Amino acid sequence: MDNPRLDYLREKVRKLPLEPGVYLMRDQGGTIIYVGKAKALKNRVSSYFRSVEKHEPKVYKMVSHVYDFDYIVTESEFEALVLECSLIKEHSPKYNILLKDDKGYHYVRVSPGPWSKITAVKQRIEDGSTYLGPYTSSFVVSQTVDEVNKVFQLPTCSKKFPQDFRRGRPCLNYYIKQCMAPCQGKIRQEDYMEAVSNAMDFMRGSTQDTLEMLKGRMEQAAQAMEFEKAARYRDRIQAIEKISSHQKVIFSRVPEQDIIAFAQSGDTVCAVVIQYRSQRLVDKQDYLFGEIQDLEGFRSDFILRYYSQRTEIPKNIYLDSGFEDFELVERYLSERAGRRVVLHIPQKGEQLQLVQMAYHNAAQRLSHETARTGREVAALDELARLLGLGYTPSYIEAYDISNIGSATIVGGMVVFENGRPLKSAYKKFSIRSVSSPDDYACMQEVLERRLKRYYEEKDTGSSFGRLPDLILLDGGKGHVSTVEPLVRGMGFSIPVFGMVKDDRHRTRAITSDGAEISIQSTRSAFTLVSTIQDEVHRFTIGYSKNKHSKTSFESALIQVEGIGATRAKNLMKHFKTIKAIREADADTLRQAPGMNTASAENLYRYLHTQDAQEQNS
């Protein structure tokens, strides 16, 4: 740390009270660069200037620029939270969470008649069309356009009417009742435009108003004995009722609500807010943040920053997870809104589905930023939540032990980076200190050797010089209870978990040294862990079989006159593979280290006599 003011700052901290309040970090020019709240000012502020090298990057950078700090004592922690929000809004400090909405606008375009089409567009131009909007969310516009075209059976193809009447057969949408097929020339223009008008009323108004209007027109058509028209109204009513009850993207049973979820990849976090007003989805907003390691603390800060910038706060806010200041934040939002605001963490039903939808949108946005798939982002994030890590394990090492008798005991290490195998980092271990099939002792040896190599190579930042975010062992809690004390004893705080298989050798759960954690209900995490367990088993058993065949081959070579244990080992070391030795001629064999002409000829005859016998048999 190159901050020359650290000693001064540490001395000033000693004079702080153990009372709640707000602290303001300032740079050399006096600008406020960070505002925070504390239950006990002395304890919280002193943590910034203690063990500075262990801070996460963003905090480390902030502390390096702190020249001085001020503080304000409050009567309660809640008052500190209110004051913190007010000061952040006023000063917009550099190192606090600042939300910027740089979205463009989006529109629903209804092209000019007499055969209008409804589409989603990014710009409004003077072309005679009718435009609904602007909306800040392209997501909402595209979803709405898709639904109204289905409900009112409007065409989404590129055909132009009446030019393309009766040119070819109708497309699939006609047969699944998602298009009235004006291309067949059987729909009257006034009936078609009435459907377009109904669709526009539906997008502008509430679902219930549209249903009542359509029901009235259906009854009028039936009384006038226009049964075909009445049937069309009936189909539209049924379609609206169907999507209202099943399509949670557009409609929700809770009239006013926000849905908030977070996805994390490494130290990058995406927050997504989906807004429903009058039961209709009206907007989706997403925000990206870097250098975030404490997701729980970030979740609280984001919610405070987000709603401190808004005059409208819904009665219900649904979240993907809780955080430490849950009740304080709920109280703050209620006082700011002037009525009760409730924070929920749904466990089942429609609201849980909506939270999951927000989460998948966040994971998808992250995938665009990190060149990974949304499934990979979701898998690592789900795994972090299941294991209670508080961060995304982007670099995972997995270990397995394999033995074919006591003569061939090996260990394997595979690495997954950002949810994908990093084969260049795979490692093989020949067990040295254990002579009997003792998986626990073998696993201990492998991990001890690996972690010792970290101290030797840590300056490189790669291979053994890089520490994993998570260690997974192919085995149960016995493996974990054997390895975890070793890892802690060597000064590392890396979380260690076991991967447990069922009777059919399929992944069942993850275990700590205490209890098992079921992962089968979280599909993405389950698939990832199963893939890791299968890969480390494949890699280790492959190494074990290969080494066993080499050991057996070395034992066979010793039977040849003039070939002892040393020459057999030298041959394997020189030629690398059994195949290369078998394919070598006598002269090539003679050139291997420690070999002579007689031994080479004896070996050549032995190998080729053996090959001939195998072919005859």
Q: What report would you give on this structure?
A:
- By secondary structure, the chain is α+β, with helices and mostly antiparallel strands.
- It has 20 helices and 19 strands.
- The strands form four sheets. Strands 12, 13, 14, 15, 16, 17, 18 and 19 form an eight-stranded mixed sheet that branches. It has a five-stranded mixed sheet with strand order 9-8-7-10-11, with helices on both faces. It has a three-stranded antiparallel sheet with strand order 2-1-3.
- β7 and β8 form a beta hairpin.
- α8 packs antiparallel against α9, α12 crosses α13 and α14 packs parallel to α15.
- The longest helix is centred in the C-terminal third of the chain and has 35 residues.
- The radius of gyration is 34 Å and the shape is flat.
- The termini are far apart.
- The mean pLDDT is 83.
- Calculate the terminal CA-CA distance, rounded to whole Å: 74 Å
Q: Would you identify the CATH architecture of the largest domain?
A: 2-Layer Sandwich
The value of Rg in angstroms is 34 Å
CATH superfamily (homologous) name of the largest domain: UvrC, RNAse H endonuclease domain
Q: Portion of residues in helices?
A: 40-55%
Shape: flat
Number of helices: 20
The SS-based structural class is alpha+beta
The main pleated sheet reads as:
8 strands, mixed
Task: Output mean pLDDT.
Answer: 83
Number of E-type strands: 19
Runs in which pLDDT lies below 50 for 5 or more consecutive residues are none
- Report the top-level CATH class of the largest domain: Alpha Beta
How many domains? The number is: 5
What is the CATH third-level topology name of the largest domain? Nucleotidyltransferase, domain 5
Strand content: 15-25%
